[in-house]
Amino acid sequence: MEVLFVISSLVSVVGAIILLTQRNAVYALLGLLIAFFGSAGIFRSLDAPFIAVSQILIYAGALAVMFLFVLMFTDTRTQLDSGPPPGAVGARPNYKPGEDRKAGEKLIRFNPLDHILLPQPLAAVIAIAFLLCTGYAIFMLPERYNTFGDLPAGYDSALFTAGAADSGSRLLPFGGTDAVSKTIFEGFPLAFEVVSLLIFAAVLGAVLLARRHLAGIPGTQDVARAEGQEPQEKPQAETGHKGHH
Amino acid sequence: MGLLEPKVVLMLAAALFSAGLYGVLSRRNMIMILMSLELMLNAVNVSLVAYSRYWAGQGADLLGSHSGQFFTLMVMAVAAAEVGIGLAIIVAIFRRKHTADADAASDLKN
Amino acid sequence: MVTSFALAVLLFVFPLSDNGVIHTTAVGWISTGGLNISLGLYLDHLSGLYMLIITGIGALIHIYSIGYMKHDDAYWRYFAYLNLFLFSMLMLVLGDNLVCMFLGWEGVGLCSYLLIGFWYKHLVNTNAGMKAFLVNRVGDFGFMIGMFLIFWHFGSLNYTDLFLSVDQATAKGALDSSLLNWACVCMFIGACGKSAQIPLYVWLPDAMAGPTPVSALIHAATMVTAGIYMLARMNFIYVHAEYAMTVVAVIGASTALFAGTIGLVQRDVKKVLAYSTVSQLGFMFLAAGLGQFNLAVFHVFTHAFFKALLFLGSGSVIHSLEHTLGHGNPDSQDIWKMGGLKKMPVTCWTMVIGSLALAGFPLTAGFFSKDAILFSAFHRGDTLGWVLYGMGMVAAVCTAFYTFRMVGLTFFGQWRGNEAAYAHADEAPGSMAVPLVILAFFALVAGLLWLPPAFADLHLHSESFKTWLDPVWAQGQAALAADSHLRMPQEHDAATIAAEWMNIAISSVVAIVMIAFAFSIYSKAGNIAKVQKLALRDGKPTGLYTMVLNKYYVDELYDTMIVRPLKLVSDVLFVVVDVVVIDLILVRGTAEVVRVSSDLGRRIQTGLVRHYLYAFAVGAVILTALFLMIAQR
C-alpha cells in the first residue's frame, strides 16, 4: 500500500504541475486528469476502494469530458494565457500559435518555453503563504496523528459498531460499497436527498443558462442581438444569429 | 515512521490545494480557473478520506469512520453541479463576449 | 358535508349513548413550564349535540348554497371559506382545552370576517367585515384575560384537569370566588363579542352584508352560539361565580329587549332577522345566567332550526328578486317594497312555519324553549327574577310582532315594488327548497324533545333532551347548595306546575294576540297606511320612532366615544411617529447613510473577477494564520 501511495502521490503532483504550467488548455486538462487518477490511487491506498472508483467515474470520466466538450465548444484552447511570457525566447506581442505560418514563413524554431507559463509572483506568494499556514497546522497536530493505526476487522452491520458482530450479523469491510451505502442511507439520508435536489437544480440552471435564444420564451438569451455586436468583429457568429431575426 | 501516515497525506493534500489556489489566481481563462478549482476540491477529498481512514484506525464505529467518505461523495456531487453551472455560465459569457477571459466579465463595474 | 353529518350521527348515537366521553389527545402543542397545551378532542354529550347542529345545519346550508351561489364568480372561494369555517367551529366545540377552543374561536372569527366581506368590491361589505372583526377582538381580549385568570388560579386549561381542580378546591373551600367572578365576567365579555350581546352586538346586524346562507349558518345557527357553548362548557366554574351569573342574566335580558325593539322598525328583511337573532341570543344568555344551562342549550338547538330556516327563506326571496333587480340592490331586501309573495308557496309557507316558531306560537319549537326560559326567570321568585321575567316577556311580545310584520309585509297584501321583479319572482330551485322543507319540519317538532313538566298532567312525557345533557351539568350542580338560585329544578310540586300552566297560558295568549295584531296590520294595504300616518309626521319619522329607527344611536355613540378619539390619536401618531421618526429619520436616514458609504465603497470595485479572487484568497490566508495564532495561545 505504501508503494501505491508513493507512486500515486507522485503522479498527482506531476499532474498538478502540468495543469499549472501548460499554456494549452487541452494539455492542462490532461494534467488535471493525471492528478485525478493519482488521487484515485491515493484513495485506494487509504482503503477507500469505493471512493477511488467513484473518483475515476465522476471526475476522470464525467467532469473531464465536460471540460473537454466546453473547450471545443468555446474554442479558447490557446487564448489568453497563451501570451508569450515576458522574457521568453522569441517573444512577440499578441502571439498566436500558427501566426508564424500565416506570415508565409516556416515554423523556424520550437521553443518549449513558448508552451509554458512563467510563474505569476503574487499568486505564488499567496499560495505559498497558504501552504505554509496549513503545513504548520499539520505539523502541530498531536502525536496520535503520527500513524493511521490498524483497520478493524469489520463493522457490525446491525449495530454500527466496530468489530462487535454477533453471530447473526455480517461484518462489513471498511470503505466497501456496503459500508459506505449504509452510512449514506442510515446515517445521512436527508443530506443525500438534498444533494440530489441540488444536482437537479444545477441541471435546470445549466440548461437555462446555456441554451440559445428561443423565440417567444423570456429568459433565454440572444446574445449577439442584445449586445448589438458589430458584424466585422465576429462575422461568423453574426451570420449565425441572423437566422433568428 | 513510514510515508503512509496521516500527516504526510494531509501535507500532500495541502500541497495540492495550494497548487489549485495558485492556478485559480494565476489564470485568466475561466475554464482554466474552473479546472484549478476542481484540483482544490480534489485535495479536500484526499484529506477527508485520510481522516476517514484515521478514525477507522482509532476504533470509531461505522458511521463515525465512514462519514469522511460520505462527505467526499457529497463534495463530488457538489463539484459536479458546480462545474455544470460554471461551464454553462462560461458558455453564456462566451456567446456574448466571444472570449473566456475572466476580466472580460466586468459589466457590473461601477 | 352530508358525509360528515352522517359520521357525526354515528359518533353521537353509538359511543355516547352509554354516558361515555371520548377524549383523545393528538399531539402536544405548547409545553413550557407549568403550561401544557395539547391539540386534543373532547367529545361528550354537549359537544356531541353541538357537533350534530353544526354538521346537520351545515350540510343543509351547503346544499342550499349550491343553488344560491350558482351564478357567483367566486363559487369556489365561497365553499373554501365555508368549509374552513366548519372546521374551525368543530375545533371550537371539540377542543379539549380552552386554548383549542380559543383557536377555533379565532378561526370562526376570521371566517366570519372573510365571508361578511365576501363581495369585497363594495366598500360597505368590507367595512362590515372589519367592524365584525374589530368588535370581536374586543371580546377576544376579554376571553384571553379570563383564560389567563383561570390558568393562574387552577394551573391548567384542560377541561379534565379543571374538573378535578374545581372539585378539590370546593372540597377544601379554597375557591377564590372574587377571582372566579372576574374570570367569568371576562370570559363572558368574550362571549358578548362572539354572540353579539350588549355592548358588543353592533357587528351582527352589519354582518348581514355577507351571502344569505352565510348569515344563516354563521350569524344565526352556529357561530353566534359559540358564546353559549363556552358558558355551558364552563358551567362548573360559572356556578361558583354568582355575581358573574347575575351579570350574564341581566345583559342577556336587556339585549333581548333592546334588540327586540330595534327589530320592530327595520326595513331590511335580513336586518329584522339579525336583530331577532341578537334578541334570541339574549334569551339564551338569560337562561344561562339563571343557571339553566340546559334551557340555554335547548334554545340554541331549536333556534338553530327556525332561524336558519328564516334566513334561508329570506335568501330565497332575495335570490328570486335579484334576478330582476340586479345583484346587491338594496330594494331586493326591503320589505316595504315587497308584498304578496305567497306566489312562492314553498318559501312562503316554510317561512310562516319558521316565524311561528320564532314568535313562540304554541306547540312549535320556539314556544317550548322560550317559554321554559321565561318560566325559569319567573320561578326565581325574587325581584331580579320578576324584572328579568318582565323584560323577557316584553321582548317576546316584540318578537311576535316584528316577525309577523315581516311575514305580512313580505308574503301577503299587495306588491309595492318594481312590477317586473314581481313578475319574475319564481319559486326557489330544488336545491334551495329541500333544505327549507327539512328545516321547517324540525322547526315544528324539535321542541317535542323536551316538553314542560306541566305537560305530564296530560300524560305527555318527553324529556329526552334534558336527560341527554344531564351528565354535563352533574358536577356543577352537585357542588351547589340546595337553595341556590343556580340550581336546576329536579322535581316539581303542584304549585310550580300551576305557575307553569299560568305562564304557558300567558305567553301563548300574548304570542297569538301579537301575531294576529301584526298580521292584520301589515298584510292589508289600508292598515299599513294608517300605521304610517301614526308614525310619520309630514313624511318624517317622529319622537321615539326616530330613536328606535336609528338603533338608539348606539353606532353614533361608539363613533363619538371610541372611533373618533382613536382616529385623532392615530392621526397624531401618524404625523409624529410615522412621518417624522420612521419615514424621515429611520428610512431616509438609513438610505442616505447607505448611499454615501456605498459611494465610497464603489471606488474599490474594479469589476474584475480576478481582483476579487485575489482579495478573497488573501483574506482566507490571513484568517487561517489568525486561527493558528489563536490556537497557539
Explain this structure to me?
The complex is a heterotrimer of chains A (245), B (110) and C (633). Chain A has helices spanning 2-21, 25-45, 49-74, 99-102, 121-139, 177-187, 189-210, 223-227, 235-242; strands at residues 155-156, 171-172. Chain A has 245 residues and is an all-alpha fold. Chain A has a domain at 1-79: Four Helix Bundle (Hemerythrin (Met), subunit A). Chain A has a two-stranded antiparallel sheet with strand order 1-2. Chain A is globular and about 60 Å long. Chain B has 110 residues and is mainly α. Chain B has a domain at 29-100. In chain B, 77% of the residues lie in helices and 0% in strands. Chain B is built from 3 helices and no strands. Chain B has helices at residues 6-26, 30-57, 62-97. By secondary structure, chain C is mainly alpha-helical. Among the domains of chain C are: 1-240, no CATH class; 556-632, no CATH class. Helix content of chain C is 73%, strand content 4%. In chain C, the strands form 2 sheets. In chain C, strands 1-2 form a two-stranded antiparallel ribbon. In chain C, strands 3-4 form a two-stranded antiparallel sheet. In chain C, strand 3 and strand 4 form a beta hairpin. Chains in contact: A-B, A-C, B-C. The interface between B and C is small, with 13 and 10 residues.
Give the helix/strand layout.
The complex is a heterotrimer of chains A (245), B (110) and C (633).
Chain A: H1 2-21, H2 25-45, H3 49-74, H4 99-102, H5 121-139, E1 155-156, E2 171-172, H6 177-187, H7 189-210, H8 223-227, H9 235-242
Antiparallel strand pairs in A: 1-2
Helix pairs in contact in A: 1-2, 2-3
Chain B: H1 6-26, H2 30-57, H3 62-97
Helix pairs in contact in B: 1-2, 2-3
Chain C: H1 2-13, E1 22-32, E2 35-43, H2 45-68, H3 75-94, H4 98-116, H5 123-154, H6 159-172, H7 177-195, H8 203-206, H9 212-221, H10 226-233, H11 235-238, H12 242-263, H13 269-289, H14 293-325, H15 345-359, H16 365-380, H17 383-411, H18 419-424, H19 430-445, H20 464-479, H21 494-522, H22 525-535, E3 536-537, E4 540-541, H23 543-549, H24 554-601, H25 609-632
Antiparallel strand pairs in C: 1-2, 3-4
Helix pairs in contact in C: 1-2, 2-3, 2-9, 2-14, 2-19, 3-4, 4-5, 4-9, 5-7, 7-10, 7-12, 9-14, 10-14, 12-13, 12-17, 13-14, 13-16, 13-17, 14-15, 14-16, 14-19, 15-17, 15-19, 16-17, 16-21, 17-21
